[in-house]
Amino acid sequence: MELIAFFVLALLLVASALVVITNRNPVTCAVALAFNLVAIAGVYMVLDAQFIGLLQVIVYAGAIMVLILFVIMLLNLREEEKPHPAGTFQRVLAPAASLLFAVVIGRALFLSAPSSFPEKADGFGTAASIGNELFMRFYYPFEAISLLLVVAMIGAVLLAKRDVS
Amino acid sequence: MIDPRLVLVLSAVLFSLGVVGVLTRRGAISILMCVELMLNAGNLAFITFARIAGGPEAQIYVFFVMTLAAAEAAAGLAIVIALFRLRGTTDVDEINLLKW
Fold it and tell me: Considering only CA atoms, which of A116, A162, A5, A39 is closest in space to residue B3?
C-alpha cells in the first residue's frame, strides 16, 4: 500500500518537475510547482513526518506559492518569447551535465543508505516531539532563524519600495 | 515497506531537474521556482535520513530550510520587482549590468 502510494507520488513529482522546467508560461509553471510541493508533502506523510508534511502544505504550497503567483500576475509576465538561445551548446550541455550529476549524487546516496527502514520510535514526527525538541535543544537556532526572517522581511520591503534615493 | 534508497534516488533526480531548470530558463521568476524545486529535493533527502536515523533532528533541519526558503522567496521576488521597475524585463539575459 505504502509502496503503491510512493510510486504514484514519485511519478507525479517527476512529471510536474518536468512541466516546471519546460513550460514557457510562468503561470503554468507556478501551478505545476504547487502540485509538486503538495506531492512532496504526500511523500513526507508516507515517511511518517506528519508535522513537516502539514507545514509543507501550509508554508510552501500556501504562502510561498501565493507570493510567487502574486508577483507573476503583478508584473503581468507573458510567455518567454523565444526559447533559451545561448546556442545549442547550453541547451544540450546543461541537461547532459545534470544527468551526470544525477548519476553521481544518486549513486552516492544509494550506497550511503540501508536497504530498509528501521522500526519507527514512539511519537516519531509528531508536532509534540518536534516542538519539544525545537524549544529545548534547538532554541538558539530557532531564535536565529526568526531573526533571519525579520531581516528578510525588512530587506524585501526596502528593495521593493518605489523611490530608492 | 519502501526502500530508502529509492527515495534518495528520487530526491537526486528532482534536484537534477531543478539544476536543468536553473541552467536553461531565462525568466528570473522561473529560475527562482527551479531553486525551490532544488530546495525541496534536499528536504526530501533530509526527511528520508530522519526516518533512517529515527530522531527528530533532521526534521528540524527541514523546518529551518523551509524558513530559509520563505526568506529567499521574499527577498528574491523583491529583487525581481525592483529589476522589472528599472529595466522593464525579468529576462536574465538582458540584465547584464554586473557582467564583466
Answer: A116
A157 neighbourhood in chain B, CB within 8 Å: 78
Residue A154 is part of which domain span? 126-165
Exposure class string for A41-54: b at 16+ Cβ within 10 A, else e: bbbbbbbbbbbbbe
CB of A1 within 8 Å of any CB in chain B? no
Helix spans in chain A (H): 2-22, 26-46, 50-55, 65-74, 87-112, 127-136, 139-160
pTM attached to this predicted model: 0.90
B4-87 architecture in CATH?
A: Orthogonal Bundle (1.10)
Domain boundary among A44, A79, A114: A79
Q: What is the CATH number of the domain that holds A42?
A: 1.20.120.1200
Interface predicted TM-score (ipTM): 0.91
Domain ranges of chain B: 4-87
Nearest residue of chain A to residue B70 (CA atoms): A64
Search chain A and give the residue with CA nearest B82: A160
Q: With an 8 Å Cβ cutoff, is A135 touching chain B?
A: no
Mean pLDDT, consecutive 10-residue stretches, chain A (165 aa), reads 91 94 89 95 92 92 91 81 61 87 91 85 86 92 94 91 65
DSSP string spanning A117-143? PPPPPTTTT-HHHHHHHHHHTTHHHHH
